[in-house]
Specification:
This protein is 70% helix and 0% strand. With 314 residues, it is an all-alpha fold. Helix 6 runs antiparallel to helix 7 and helix 8 packs antiparallel against helix 9. The two termini are 19 Å apart. This is CHAD domain-containing protein. It holds the Pfam family CHAD. It comes from Streptomyces goshikiensis. InterPro entries: CHAD_dom (IPR007899), CHAD_dom_sf (IPR038186).
Length: 314
């Protein structure tokens, strides 16, 4: 376990947690301002993408910290804000997820079909085999429709009174953190570190329950357990981040689980497309190959996480 930054943890539990939450609230407001400024360029612009990523990241860090260190805050306030931030980050993530899934699948189709260059998804089917081209067109229709719906939901959410209430609450948080009068006065090693250890223990138990031995065949029924480990790892990482610890290893492990999630969802998308009625056999075959490719990516990501989490002895 990494040791806390003693310069950071020299104050009370309220001092340390308050500083972290204020910093994340400021990051949220900065990303929101960037998002508003990039509105004219559309959500696909570099500025819009970066702003949405910043909003999601700050929202997750605040909500995760309010969950782990709930007793140090005004609990009723923390519960309400955490619920709203989870809603917001989930809404913002949907549009990005559909776009990233389409890109991943199209890149895999081009790679599997042996195309040396990587054309854009639309209007580039001539470079592919017939089955891959039709599979790509089918995936593009389905995922573009899902992304369009998610984009509409995002715009509706960002224009709602619910979102404005969340933004107002975060703006208040940037200057003042509602804390529990007793717990906030406690020492960091007596209050925050034990609470962070609880989050770590939950993660360790979830990891121990995974089918980690190398060579375990991929099973989509296990994806849920891996996704839960990913969520718990994120909560653990943010808790240690709030304590000023080096979270490089945790971030690397989280990246492996992000790739696992992306590949698992891409495999599911290709399987869903393969169940489309009356598709040509060549299209179904290409989708089957694509599904198998993403399953291999899932297995590779699981092995990468295992190596990071439980490195083999030298």
């Amino acid at each position: 376990m990494a040791q806390p930054n003693h310069d950071l943890t020299a104050g009370t539990a309220g001092d340390v947690l308050g500083a972290y939450l204020r910093a994340q609230a400021t990051a949220f407001l900065r990303a929101l301002r960037l998002h508003d400024e990039s509105g004219a360029h559309g959500s696909d612009s570099a500025e819009g993408t970066e702003a949405a990523r910043g909003l999601r990241g700050a929202a997750r860090r605040i909500s995760g910290s309010l969950s782990t260190f709930r007793v140090v805050t005004d609990s009723a306030w923390a519960d309400g804000l955490r619920t709203e931030l989870v809603w917001l980050s989930s809404t913002l993530a949907d549009e990005h997820a559909h776009g990233a899934r389409l890109q991943r699948l199209m890149e895999a189709l081009h790679r599997l079909s042996g195309t040396p260059e990587l054309p854009s998804p639309r209007g580039s089917a001539g470079a592919l085999t017939v089955g891959s081209a039709r599979a790509g067109a089918l995936l593009e229709r389905q995922l573009t429709l899902a992304r369009t719906r998610a984009h509409s939901a995002t715009l509706q959410a960002l224009g709602s009174s619910r979102f404005h209430a969340v933004a107002d609450a975060v703006a208040v948080l940037a200057s003042e953190v509602p804390l529990d009068a007793v717990a906030a006065r406690g020492r960091v090693d007596e209050v925050l570190i034990p609470l962070a250890t609880v989050a770590e223990t939950r993660l360790s138990a979830a990891v121990a329950a995974l089918p980690l031995p190398a060579g375990t065949p991929y099973s989509p029924h296990e994806d849920g357990a891996w996704h839960e480990v990913r969520r718990l790892l994120r909560v653990h990482r943010y808790a240690r981040e709030a304590l000023g610890e080096d979270v490089t290893r945790l971030a690397s492990a989280g990246s492996a689980l992000d790739r696992h999630r992306d590949a698992a969802e891409a495999a599911a998308a290709s399987a869903t497309a393969a169940r489309t009625p009356r598709i040509a056999p060549a299209t179904a075959y290409a989708l089957g190959v694509l599904h198998a490719d993403q399953r291999h990516e899932v297995e590779a990501s699981r092995a990468a996480f295992q190596d990071l989490w439980q490195p083999a002895p030298v």
